[in-house]
From TrEMBL:
Domain GH26, residue spans: 37-367
Organism: Kineosporia babensis
Active site annotation, chain numbering: 175, 300
One Gene Ontology term of the molecular function aspect: hydrolase activity, hydrolyzing O-glycosyl compounds
Top-level taxon in the UniProt lineage: Bacteria
UniProt keyword terms in alphabetical order: Glycosidase, Hydrolase, Membrane, Transmembrane, Transmembrane helix
The protein, known as: GH26 domain-containing protein
TM annotation in the entry: 24-47
Family: Belongs to the glycosyl hydrolase 26 family.
């Protein structure tokens, strides 16, 4: 049995010690709580800081001329499918997006099948042009920056002009900020140098009126695209590929049992925090284009049911928000092209896969 020794009018010593320990624990817990709160605040502040983005959006905003909005589509190298989409859409199309073969340098320099397919169709082509071939591992962005590959792009420019496509929009090295891109590189100077080499080379070909579309992927990616901007004199459009994809908290994937309200909440959060909002969402890119005095473009966008479940699938809210963004003249969108194609990485097609959303799309865009 514990022997309690009493003092003069005070509590037992064991009880006093216990109270002192409790006060000490409370003090330590309070200090830890304060430290954790400070750490969380500092962490949030560091996460929110964006010196690169802030610098890009500083300074005066130049005047810019934004042409009337052009509607477009990607349907593969299939002019008949483009016509079918236009008929379903209920309005004329102006632009077709396509991707040239890129297995070898010869395919990059002379994508004859693609050029021939769109010749005489009346569409303005927006061609996705590779910076490096897939079958030549020795080819690098750094070598390209020295001018080593200029001749291939001179040949490409000549082929386009001869085919009557000297007005083509060229998405050089599209989505270069994705880690999985063949031409992804941490060497920003090399990328910028290579872009300038190609732009200067292709612009030197008589008869060309090319528009160069600098086109990163939307949202947070491996590389910060802002640091890869080649300069205003080398760029005509600022393009963004902006699919219904999000990895931020409480967006996608939908949890099991997610009902209509749950899906709606996550779709809205995906738009606000990742697709439109966030450090590198559409809101940022619209501001970036405005500060550069360039029109904005949306060469690829669409619904997406992804294998990793980070796409929104059937999502009419996304279509409504994209339409509102595109229709807002403050955003300066020169052309938009829906990605009407079902690939190995998931479906996008409004005409077949997402027919309910397709009706929403037509009601919004065919006005």
């Amino acid at each position: 049995m514990l022997e309690l020794t009493r003092g003069t009018g005070g509590p037992p010593r064991a009880v006093a010690r216990r109270r002192r320990r409790l006060r000490l624990f409370a003090l330590v817990a309070g200090v830890l709580a304060v430290l954790l709160a400070v750490a969380a605040g500092v962490g949030y502040w560091l996460w929110q800081r964006d010196p690169v983005g802030d610098a890009a959006l500083s300074g005066p905003i130049p005047e810019r001329t934004v042409p009337p909005l052009k509607n477009g589509v990607f349907v593969g190298t299939e002019p008949d499918q483009a016509q079918a989409f236009a008929e379903w859409f209920g309005a004329d199309l102006d632009v077709v997006v396509d991707f040239s073969s890129r297995t070898s340098w010869d395919e990059i320099a002379d994508p004859a099948y693609m050029i021939e397919a769109w010749s005489g169709t009346g569409y303005q082509p927006s061609y996705s042009i590779a910076l490096l071939p897939e079958d030549d591992a020795s080819a690098t962005v750094a070598n390209g920056a020295t001018g080593a590959y200029n001749e291939y792009y001179r040949q490409l420019a000549q082929n386009l002009v001869e085919a009557g496509q000297g007005n083509a929009i060229l998405r050089l090295g599209w989505e270069f900020n994705l880690e999985t891109s063949r031409w992804a590189t941490p060497d920003t100077a090399a990328f910028i140098g290579y872009w300038r080499q190609i732009a200067d080379t292709m612009r030197s070909v008589p008869g060309q009126e090319f528009k160069f579309d600098w086109n990163p992927n939307n949202g947070k990616n491996k590389y910060d695209a802002v640091e890869y901007y080649p300069g205003d004199e080398y760029v005509d459009y600022i393009g963004v590929d902006a699919y219904d994809v999000a990895y931020t908290w409480r967006t996608y994937p939908y949890p099991d049992g997610c009902d209509v309200d749950c899906r709606s909440d996550r779709q809205e959060r995906a738009w606000e925090n990742a697709i439109y909002g966030g450090k590198r969402g559409l809101e940022f890119w619209a501001d970036f284009a405005r500060h550069r005095g360039k029109p904005l473009t949306l060469p690829e966008w669409g619904l997406w049911e992804r294998e990793d479940r980070h796409g929104g699938g059937l999502n009419t809210y996304y279509l409504q928000q994209m339409h509102a963004f595109i229709a807002n003249p403050d955003n300066g969108v020169a052309y938009q092209a829906y990605f009407e194609f079902n690939g190995h990485d998931g479906p996008h097609k409004l005409m077949t896969t997402y027919q309910e959303a397709g009706e929403t799309f037509r009601s919004l865009f065919a006005k």
